Amino acid sequence: MIDEEKTKKMDEKIENEEFEVSAYSMDDDDLDDISRWDDGGDDESCDEEADSYIRWAAGRAAAIAAIPLPLADIAPLIANEVYMIHRLAGVYDKRIDESVVTMLLGCAGGAFAGKMLASFLPFIKIGIAAGITYALGKAVKAYFKSSMKLGIDEIKRIFEEEKKKNKGQKWEPIDEDEPIEVAAGCGAMADEKLMNAGKRFQVPSVYAEPTKMLLEHFENTRDQLPIEGGWGYSADDAVVIKSEDPEINPGNPLDGISVENVFIHYRIREELEYVSPVKYHLIDWHHTGQRLVYINGRPHDVVAYVVETMPGEKWTELCDDYAAHNGYKDDPEGLAKLDARRDALIERYAGEAYMDISDWFGRC
What we know:
This protein has helices at 8-15, 29-34, 43-65, 74-91, 98-106, 111-117, 122-145, 152-165, 192-199, 210-217, 256-275, 312-324, 332-345; strands at residues 227-229, 239-241, 280-295, 298-311, 347-356. By secondary structure, it is an alpha+beta fold. The two termini are 39 Å apart.
C-alpha cells in the first residue's frame, strides 16, 4: 500500500456515511493547494448534468408510454421517475431515503394514473408521460439546489409551472439501452484509447469475489458494500447491489447510487494499490457518462469514469518539494512550474462498472 494517509479523509467520509454521490475528490489539504484541475462540481456543470438526466428520463417516459395496453405503463413510468430522482440527488450530492422520494413523487399528485387513464391513445399518452416526468424533474432539481429546503407547496408550484410551459412539446422516445448523454462540462463517455489504458489495471479474474478481497484490503468496506457477484468489468461479471442486507442495514433500504460510487472508489484503489506492480496514488476520479441497460430482463447501471493517477513515488516527490518550499507562497513562478510538473506526471485511464440494480431499481 502507498500513501495511506492521502486517502484517509475519503475513507473517513465513507465510514461516517458522508460519502455523497458526486464527491470524488480526495479532498486532501495539500491536494487543494497544488492541484488545479476542475472536479466538475461547479453549479453550472451540475445544472447541465441534471438537465441531461431530466431530458433522458422524459424521453424514456415517452418510450414507455408508447405501450398500447391500458395501465401497463404506470409501474414502469413510476420506476423511471424514482430512478431520475436518485440520479438528480447524486448530481447535487444529496443523500435521500424512501420518505424523500415518496414526498417528491407525491408532488406530482395523481398525475400519471389519472391522466393516463383518461387516454388510451399512445400518441396522446407520450406527451402526457414525458411532460409530467420533465416537469417533475425540474421541480426535483430546484428542491436539491435549495439544499432540500423548498417546501411542498413551492415544489408543486414549480411542477405545475414547468408542466404548462412545456405543454404541446414533441418528445422523442429514448430506448431503454440508449446512453444518457452527459452535458458538456461534465465529461463524455470515455474514448477507446483511455479505455485500453485502463485494461492493464483491471482486477484479474482469478481474484476472489470483491466482498472478500476489498474487506481484506480495506476493512471499512465491511459496513458499506451490500454487494454480490463479480468485479463489474462486463455484463457477465456484473456486481449485484442489494437493496437490503441483514448484516449491514437490517430493515433499512440503502441508497443504491451511493453504494455504486463507494464500490467504484474501492475498485479503483484495488487496481492502483494492489493489482498494479507499480504502486499508484489515486488523485481523482469522476463520472464521464452513465447508461441504463437491460440484460436478460434485469436493469443494470453502466457507469463510465476517468481516473487521474500518478506513480506513488512521483506523488511523494511533488509533495516533498511543495513542503520544502513552504507551499511556494512567495514564489508564484515556482508554483506554476510545480503545477506543470504535476500535469506532466498525471496518467489517465477510463473504466466502466456494470452494476445489476434490479434489487432496488424503481423502489422508493
